[in-house]
């Protein structure tokens, strides 16, 4: 599909009042997206596990308004009005208006809640923007004849819209493995939206576990928007983008064979490469903290000693995602609790696992 396919036909149903609600998960990239072009088009392909427990629940109430001049909306997080969220949503509305021409016709009340602490350093933009995109798609559906909106179109357009809010959000609509970014080795992959990974996946990856160690819960010193932009003119950028394409091809055979050793090597190399790109940007920056490195070294020592398939990945922050197969979770969780939790801020961590995407909620 192209951008043009997401411009709707004139709506058939007149304006009405309504309320819709969606829960949408976060996701964790295995091959990382870092660097973007205009309109949130990624410089390289990425693939992620959709998570199950870390999610945003958003309820969108809409009422028709008299004039269609400005956007009109208010945002609440856990019942508290959040005017500081408004500029990001306003930018999102501007980017998606061509595809959702009803945005100026309603007043929206956006009520949102995260299942993880807002200040945990876990990116709420993927779950938050995907939940909002799904709510807006439900409004579009309410204004359209049912036949115009198939489930596939609904999910694809929701992913397309979510991408315009926050790139990685386009990988949160469905599960359990999602690819975003056009790459030769994955049929159907596109820069415009996330697609379900289309090939066989070995049982080793079913119910894969992700324990998120909250090392630093403060605001990031450098936002991911700034980080992405620093890839423009970065001396290693082109090599990195090529490497991501190669890693997408490699992960395909790893996912098919169930080779956990190779999986861990690729995932950890991706995480460290992401941070190496940050450290070699100009200006350079470091998002890892001393405890991030302590945890990584402990994981490596324990893996060597135990022979278990424990590995890590990192997002654009100091927290560590510890990934491991379900059938090794007893011993590994014990190790995490005894050896790693001490490095977390206030001993906080979140147990999550691979999930299957967003759900609409009833009232
Ligand atoms: O979606 P953004 O702009 O917050 O970028 C997220 C980038 C990483 O989390 C670092 C990697 C990824 O692919 O999710």
Provide an overview of this structure.
Helix content is 33%, strand content 22%. It is built from 8 helices and 14 strands. It folds into 2 domains: 3-196, Ribosomal Protein S5, domain 2 (2-Layer Sandwich), CATH 3.30.230.10; 203-353, Alpha-Beta Plaits (2-Layer Sandwich). Strand 11 (311-314) and strand 12 (320-324) form a beta hairpin. Strands 1, 4, 5, 6, 7, 8, 9 and 14 form an 8-stranded mixed beta sheet that branches. A 4-stranded antiparallel beta sheet has the order 11-12-10-13. Strands 2-3 form a two-stranded antiparallel ribbon. Bound molecules: (3R)-3-hydroxy-3-methyl-5-(phosphonooxy)pentanoic acid (PMV). The site of (3R)-3-hydroxy-3-methyl-5-(phosphonooxy)pentanoic acid has 15 residues, from helix 4.
Which terms summarize this structure?
363 residues, alpha+beta, Ribosomal Protein S5, domain 2, Alpha-Beta Plaits, eight-stranded mixed β-sheet, four-stranded antiparallel β-sheet, 33% helix, globular, binds (3R)-3-hydroxy-3-methyl-5-(phosphonooxy)pentanoic acid
């Amino acid at each position: 599909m192209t951008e043009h396919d997401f411009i709707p036909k004139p709506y058939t149903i007149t304006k009405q009042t309504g309320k819709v609600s969606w829960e949408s998960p976060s996701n964790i990239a295995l091959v990382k997206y870092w660097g973007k072009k205009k309109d949130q088009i990624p410089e390289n392909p990425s693939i992620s596990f959709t998570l199950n427990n870390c999610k945003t629940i958003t309820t969108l109430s809409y009422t028709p308004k008299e004039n269609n001049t400005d956007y009109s909306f208010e945002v609440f997080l856990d019942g508290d009005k959040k005017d500081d969220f408004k500029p990001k949503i306003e930018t999102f509305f501007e980017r998606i208006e061509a595809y959702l021409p009803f945005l100026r016709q309603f007043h929206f009340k956006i009520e949102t809640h995260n299942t993880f602490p807002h200040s945990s350093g876990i990116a709420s933009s993927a779950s938050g923007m995907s939940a909002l995109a799904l709510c807006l798609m439900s409004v579009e559906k309410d204004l359209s004849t049912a036949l115009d909106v198939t489930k596939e179109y609904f999910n694809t357009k929701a992913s397309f819209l979510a991408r315009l809010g926050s790139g990685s959000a386009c990988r949160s609509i469905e599960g359990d493995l999602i690819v975003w970014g056009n790459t030769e080795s994955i049929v159907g992959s596109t820069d415009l939206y996330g697609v379900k990974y289309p090939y066989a996946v070995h049982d080793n990856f079913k119910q894969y576990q992700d324990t998120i160690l909250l090392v630093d819960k403060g605001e990031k010193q450098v936002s991911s928007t700034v980080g992405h932009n620093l890839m423009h003119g970065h001396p290693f950028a082109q090599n990195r983008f090529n490497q991501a394409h190669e890693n997408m091809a490699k992960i395909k055979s790893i996912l098919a064979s169930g080779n956990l050793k190779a999986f861990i090597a690729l995932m950890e190399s991706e995480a460290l490469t992401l941070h190496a790109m940050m450290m070699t940007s100009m200006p350079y920056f470091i998002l890892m903290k001393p405890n991030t490195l302590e945890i990584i070294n402990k994981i490596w020592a324990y893996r060597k000693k135990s022979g278990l398939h424990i590995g890590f990945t990192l997002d654009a922050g100091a927290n560590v995602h510890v990934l491991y197969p379900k059938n090794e979770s007893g011993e590994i969780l014990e190790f995490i609790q005894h050896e790693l939790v001490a490095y977390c801020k206030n001993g906080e961590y979140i147990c999550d696992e691979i999930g299957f995407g967003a759900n609409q909620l009833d009232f």
